[in-house]
Design goal:
Number of helices: 6
Order of helices and strands: HHHHHH
Helix content: over 70%
Number of strands: 0
Shape: elongated
Distance between the termini: 54 Å
Length: 150
């Protein structure tokens, strides 16, 4: 599944970045877009909880985070990072700064483990919070409806 995902994402990258002939430059462009979208998702999680805590926005954010997490589980890591590394020819990862904070040498296995660990914890916390909010919103409505039915 991982090889198929890398092959398809690389094919899509070549099709979208059709004007660029240099694979290394395509990898850099993909890495830039990947990092921007990753930081945008982290910002969206913070924004939907601190600035504008609307339930609908938190629901959209939860499903985006869940989709990313599923992709990490299914493809054994981030498919974008794998295509970037293949095109550029390096082993840099989105989570390398986190690993280096603990004075560890980033390896492929450690990067994948750290990525899956962080996204699993974040996704679970967001799901628990969403279920709590849903319970808080649905329970009063259900109790009111049951009182009116009697």
């Amino acid at each position: 599944m991982e090889a198929w995902g890398v092959e398809q994402w690389e094919w899509a990258t070549h099709k979208v970045l059709f004007w660029e002939d240099d694979d290394v430059q395509k990898g850099r462009i993909l890495r830039f877009v990947h990092y921007c979208s990753g930081y945008a998702l982290v910002f969206l999680v913070a924004f939907s909880h601190l600035i504008y805590p609307a339930f609908w926005l938190q629901t959209i954010t939860l499903f985006l985070v869940t989709a990313v997490w599923i992709q990490h589980i299914v493809f054994n890591g981030c498919i974008s990072s794998k295509v970037e590394q293949k095109l550029i020819g390096d082993s840099a990862s989105f989570v390398d700064p986190v690993i280096q904070l603990f004075r560890l040498e980033p390896t492929k296995e450690l990067s994948i483990f750290t990525l899956i660990l962080i996204t699993t914890m974040a996704t679970n916390i967001l799901w628990l919070e969403w279920i709590g909010r849903l319970h808080h919103k649905v329970l009063p409505v259900a109790l009111t409806l049951s009182r009116h039915a009697q």
